[in-house]
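Render this sequence as a predicted structure.
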Amino acid sequence: QLQLVESGGGLVQPGESLRLSCAVFGLTLDTYAIGWFRQAPGKEREGVSCISSSDGSTYYANSVKGRFTISRDNAKNTVYLQMNSLKPEDTAVYYCAAEQLTCSGVYDDSGDGPVFRGNYYAMDYWGKGTLVTVSS
């Protein structure tokens, strides 16, 4: 059965770290890119990070560059999001989602390198989310 299952969310203080996991069932990471999205209360869902299927290229939103790291373990069919130096504005429900082959929603508007904004409508499958709360 095809499923994406997020875990690892919780309550942390500002400056602390969390590692989210996205366990993927029913499809393989060598054919599907996996993106992380988040949605804060009252806000639209936004792209956070993505890892492509073919060469494992990674992309990040500007708001998390330098603090978050996406990685994958093909043997475990799991994608991780290591989140360091967490801020209250990182509070949200975090979702992982899958799309075929490459990460869509990647732009390079300023010439400073690719930025992941995500494309909600390009994603084929979604997990149910895990809540991350950053508060003192």
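Summary. The CA atoms of residues 113 and 126 lie 27 Å apart. The radius of gyration is 14 Å.
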